[in-house]
Design goal:
By secondary structure, this protein is mainly α. It contains five helices and no strands.
Length: 260
Amino acid sequence: MKVELRGIRREGGQSILDMFRERWLALEPERPLAAAALGEDVSEEELAEALIAIGEERAKQETTRNTAKAEWIRSQQIVSRQKAMAARGAANVGRMQRQVQDKVRRVEQDQKMAQQAAEDLEGKVEMVEMAKMRVEEMKQELASLPREDADRRRGWEQKVRDAERQKQTAERAVHQARAIQRRHETRIKSGQRLVDMAEARVIKAREQKEKEDLAHRNAEEGLGPAKESYDRTSADLREIVEEYRRMEFLVQQRKNREEK
């Protein structure tokens, strides 16, 4: 009997649990429970073997249910982990985008300052040209004076020296303006490289975020089947536990009847 009960299966993998459930449902009020469950004229030994078989089935079902429960818990943990990773990925992309925007603003500021430096340089170059012309004019004026007119020549010589100093001052201003312009241009190039690098990091971060979002969606899709499996195996276990309790009752009922 025990071996037969273990081997009972229907198409689709129906277990001993289904056989007993069908027989309980087919029970007629006037027939003994044991006869309805196992057939007519079953012995106490056969009932005991049936109880053992159902107990073994219950143990297997508990293992199956525990495995399904562990898988469901693991699926929940995976979903939580993937959700957290997706959230961090989104935050990371947002942070990197803000960094790009900040670097772009800095480059734009440097471009404005470089433009101002270029305009300033242009003005200073014009001042140098004007200073050169003034020096040349004064030199010509000095050259036109008679050598005998020493007083006037000394006056114009001083004017020429003053004009030379003004020209040199203007030239130094041009050198400074050019240095400032070069610094701004260097900062623009450096800043643009940083922008390009930051934008490349954003692209990689977005690609990683897409992978994490996909993993999160896949994990959520896997959560449903895991929960369904846990619910199904839990329901099967509850039913087989109930069948075991009923079979215990049958065994005890048979013992009581035999003792009378």
